[in-house]
């Protein structure tokens, strides 16, 4: 009964299917226009700077001079007219990120473009591959801290080749073939190289394949010993290009929503929230809660920024206690960071909501580095 009411609550103006068809046609036209064009690589060219900057460049755009960003899903509010046109990708819990490998280093950037960590990897140009020492890549990943590993969702660039305008079915095929090659390298299965991280390709299940879909939906836990834990399911339209930003061609459902939206059974071991009644109602409540938390986070961020500016002024005005001032600033910021235990962004609803504490600590570290250079 509630399933029929849920369907009736979706107005014609909100129909995702209409927006999908329009967007797919636009992408087809763009691919045709670009078919015969020679493509040069504008990415990974560091911006030239006249004079030394006081602060280090730590975000994606400053480092690489490009507007590339992550692709984000929408809620799957209604069942697509043809499920055979889709892939299902089980998504683990973790931090959504862009991973860039180039010049012998691999870097992780948050959904907001912030640099999070540098390490070595077996990706092209990542510093741990003999076969692919040159080149570079940009991957769409989920980083799971417990496993200290990256789980690959999608590819933007690989080996100096852009995949932004390629269809999802080709991108997934390419990734699968490349990761099979990577597994042949001895370094992939060892940790003899210092500061190396491992990458695992997430399985893309064709909705036409009943066996693989049943395994993905009904198997619990999906990964050995429930590590990592499943967060939800991403659905990719097979013909969709990689879209920087939100798109109806990539959709998201929590496990407990799948039966109501798609009429497909899932394992009953996935917990259902006590406040869950219908998918649409839960989606709306979830979005409101996330908006409230983002607003609260922005407010705290502004307060912390003002506090830091005040501390900076105090330190700079007292040149006789410069070293002690830096120590005091670090101690003060450390205490404040410990008080900010609110976690906002885990990979929920396909919308990356990073740890507030991690974000604030990283931003304060950058501020400290800037002060040290003055």
From TrEMBL:
GO terms for biological process: snRNA import into nucleus. Keywords: Cytoplasm, Nucleus, RNA-binding, Transport. The keyword Transit peptide does not apply. One of its GO terms (cellular component) is cytoplasm. It is found in: Cytoplasm; Nucleus. One of its GO terms (molecular function) is RNA binding. Residues 70-255 form the Snurportin-1 m3G cap-binding domain. It comes from the Eukaryota. Functions as an U snRNP-specific nuclear import adapter. Involved in the trimethylguanosine (m3G)-cap-dependent nuclear import of U snRNPs. Binds specifically to the terminal m3G-cap U snRNAs. Belongs to the snurportin family. This is Snurportin-1. It comes from Stomoxys calcitrans (Stable fly). The gene is 106092789.
């Amino acid at each position: 009964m509630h399933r029929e009411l849920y369907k009736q609550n979706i107005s014609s103006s909100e129909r995702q299917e209409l927006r999908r068809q329009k967007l797919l046609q636009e992408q087809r036209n763009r691919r045709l226009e670009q078919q015969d064009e020679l493509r040069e690589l504008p990415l990974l060219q560091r911006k030239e700077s006249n004079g030394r900057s006081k602060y280090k460049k730590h975000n994606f755009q400053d480092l690489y001079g490009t507007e590339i960003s992550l692709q984000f899903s929408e809620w799957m509010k209604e069942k697509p007219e043809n499920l055979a046109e889709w892939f299902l990708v089980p998504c683990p819990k973790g931090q959504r990120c862009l991973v860039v490998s180039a010049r012998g280093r691999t870097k992780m950037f948050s959904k907001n473009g912030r640099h999070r960590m540098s390490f070595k990897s077996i990706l092209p140009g990542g510093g741990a591959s003999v076969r692919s020492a040159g080149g570079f890549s940009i991957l769409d990943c989920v980083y799971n801290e417990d496993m200290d590993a990256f789980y690959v969702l999608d590819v933007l660039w690989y080996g100096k080749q852009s995949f932004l305008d390629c269809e999802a079915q080709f991108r997934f095929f390419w990734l699968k073939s490349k990761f099979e090659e990577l597994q042949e390298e001895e370094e992939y299965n060892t940790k003899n190289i210092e500061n190396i991280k491992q990458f695992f390709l997430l399985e893309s299940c064709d909705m036409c394949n009943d066996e693989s879909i049943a395994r993905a939906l009904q198997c619990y836990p999906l990964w050995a010993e429930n590590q990592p834990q499943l967060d939800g399911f991403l659905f990719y339209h097979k013909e969709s290009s990689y879209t920087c930003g939100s798109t109806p061609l990539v959709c998201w459902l929590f496990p407990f929503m799948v039966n109501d939206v798609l009429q497909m059974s899932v394992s009953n071991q996935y917990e259902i929230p006590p406040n869950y009644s219908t998918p649409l109602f839960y989606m709306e409540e979830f979005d409101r809660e996330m908006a409230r938390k983002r607003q609260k986070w922005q407010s705290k961020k502004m307060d912390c920024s003002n506090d830091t500016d005040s501390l900076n002024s105090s330190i700079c005005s007292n040149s006789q206690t410069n070293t002690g001032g830096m120590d005091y600033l670090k101690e003060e910021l450390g205490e404040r960071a410990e008080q900010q235990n609110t976690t906002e962004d885990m990979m929920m609803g396909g919308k990356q909501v990073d740890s507030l504490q991690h974000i604030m600590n990283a931003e304060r570290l950058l501020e400290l580095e800037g002060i040290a250079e003055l």
